[in-house]
Design a protein that fits this description.
Two copies of one chain form a homodimer. In chain A, α8 links the parallel β6 and β7. The first copy, chain A, has 13 helices and 13 strands. The first copy, chain A, is globular, with a radius of gyration of 21 Å. Helices cover 41% and strands 15% of the residues of chain A. Chain A starts with a helix and ends in a 7-residue tail after the last helix. The first copy, chain A, is of the alpha/beta class. In chain A, the strands form three sheets. Chain A has a seven-stranded mixed beta sheet, sandwiched between helices.
Chain lengths: 369, 369
């Protein structure tokens, strides 16, 4: 966690009128508020007068929820039953448990050159050595961390070569599918869990497809690690929230989740298209990566510059973004990069956000402050 | 986690008609279901149409909730403001974060001879050496883990001598107040945080006083450790559940929490009294410790026996309890001990539960299976 960036993001979140292109938040207008409220009412009218949805539960979590998750993974070809699923406090906890079970300080972990910052923070906090997949050939990583379907921040799926490499390897794979169901083409990625069941730690979440506020994710560890992973879950926080799981299970029992996914994919694809067009028109010299899904657009430049100084100037001009440095596996001074999220600002503000960014950029504040 | 005990507890939870004296669950009939449902409705009718209660939040958690927590601690004499409080996924996560910040594998930790099993599991999982407070004088523990007010499982507060010792020391104190507000006399224990602010890690929770299903606890670390503790929280699961915190904050803004505490203290005191009387009448040779608060009664015997074999027999006779061994800092074969919870079984079943236990005990099944 970079203190200066954290401070700037908090400033930007408070500023009225600022167009927020940072943070990777889902569109709050897509949260099914009424249906979740109705699900709570149903949970409270259960056979025990709703006591169980507010009570302690077992560490592995809600059985109906685990059954739902297992059925969806099984439908994609994985050998998964409800007993294999551990409900977690978001995908982040699933990553933290997998990491705690797989690696010790000093161990090597194979991570893409650009990756999810909270995973990088987690790995660094555990004192792991972050190596590239080509370095990994020589240093026996404890695991590869990948985001099939849609990687954060690059927005693209794993290449066929990368998949072949992962499946040809023998070390563990932590497959984080946080955004996989939000590929704009609706094509779910091949499930690594289906091909390498005994060394894949599958991570999923409802934070991107439904809402983050429930804090419900899940982990499917290899069967040989299930008991140890469950003990680690219990040590960490006993169990995921009973109420959140109960609301979610009741919601899923009546919701057409695939229809929901189809609908929100179109909305995010439309937003992404608008942001990409605005960026390409405004910054013709930048490499604007067309995302295949998810919430953001990854932009690289050949221009030297200080992304934090640029963020500082951008906030003054009424727009925010995520500085590229937080996504870098290795600190890499020099060329400017940034992640811009299309997911939560009003869609009609995206072009104006890019125009404000252009003004901040033109102000020269991208050079070191 | 003992696999055999876990299996037995799961069997007993499913058995119809069984009187559950295991697990330390609060009385579900005391959960304010209607008020929590109303709080959800208010959260959803917020200025942003309830989007924020389902969205991501900052890792430290809800500001109104932290303000409420800080005010209560400040009223007890501690120098605590909302910025000092980190909302956690239950008290267990607060313990896990404190432990991760204070101790490394091989380090010594000062723990009572009888202690909360999930803390013991956590410490053992982190490969810490568990030592007594007298051993601690010689081996420089990284911290003392204590439960002021009401210890689990013994049900009593810290002795004045222990408090003097802790305050005379220089190492960190992890003060777990999970049950402190449930002292039957309503006398809150002296706040170690008020006397040793710079080395006390204060842990609290709403799981016992309100309901566990929200999974909301909190940690107040020393100010010098606040940033690192917050980073550890973020690495662990990004944040506690936004919805649960929002429901809780709305609930607390209208609830008379002290009146609630007074009411439920009386109910639990009454239950504890009934259980203690039944145990003393039925097992006159056992040491039945009169609890000063909380959910359970701690029983020690001079009789040799296998508590797991006794649990097995007890379940056959229609009652459950927690085998004493899981509360022991050091494995201690020999004399039988057990924890019996009065908190969640119908109060009218407590005497019958003890009668069933007597039958199981008389069956001789307490000796090793």
């Amino acid at each position: 966690v970079d203190v200066a960036i954290d401070r700037l993001q908090r400033v930007s979140a408070r500023r009225t009128g600022l167009i927020g292109l940072a943070g990777g938040l889902p569109d709050a207008s897509l949260f099914p508020r009424t249906a979740l409220h109705a699900a709570f009412a149903r949970a409270l009218s259960g056979s025990d007068e709703g006591g169980s949805c507010l009570q302690y539960d077992w560490p592995e979590g809600s059985q109906p929820l685990r059954r739902w998750i297992a059925a969806r993974l099984a439908a994609r070809g994985a050998d998964v039953s409800e007993g294999d699923v551990i409900v977690t406090s978001g995908a982040q906890q699933a990553l933290a448990i997998a990491t705690s079970q797989l690696a010790r300080p000093g161990d090597a972990v194979d991570v893409d050159e650009r990756a999810y910052p909270a995973a990088l923070d987690l790995f660094r906090g555990r004192e792991l050595r972050l190596v590239s997949s080509s370095e990994a050939r020589w240093c026996a990583p404890r695991f590869s961390y990948v985001m099939p379907g849609v990687a954060n921040p690059t927005g693209v799926g794993l290449s066929p070569e990368r998949i072949v490499d992962l499946l040809a390897g023998t070390h563990a794979i932590v497959a984080d599918e946080a955004y996989a169901e939000l590929r704009f083409d609706g094509a779910l990625p091949p499930l690594l869990l289906a091909s390498a069941r005994d060394r894949t730690w599958h991570v999923g979440t409802f934070s991107k497809t439904l809402c983050p506020g429930l804090r419900v994710g899940f982990l499917v560890p290899p069967r040989s690690h299930r008991a140890a992973a469950l003990a680690a879950k219990q040590d960490a926080d006993l169990q995921a929230g009973t109420l959140a799981q109960s609301i979610l299970a009741h919601f899923l029992s009546v919701d057409d989740f695939d229809a929901r996914l189809e609908r929100i994919r179109k909305i995010y694809a439309d937003r992404a298209g608008q942001l990409v067009r605005a960026l390409r028109q405004t910054f013709p010299s930048f490499r604007v990566h067309e995302p295949e899904g998810g919430f953001s657009v990854w932009v690289e430049t050949d221009a030297p510059g200080d992304d934090v100084a640029l963020l500082h100037a951008a906030i003054k001009h009424g727009v925010s973004f995520d500085p590229g440095r937080v996504f870098h596996r290795s600190p890499e001074p020099g060329a400017l990069s940034l992640r811009l999220c299309h997911s939560s600002a009003p869609i009609t503000d995206l072009a104006e956000g890019v125009a404000r960014l252009a003004k901040a950029f033109a102000s020269g504040a991208r050079s070191s402050a």
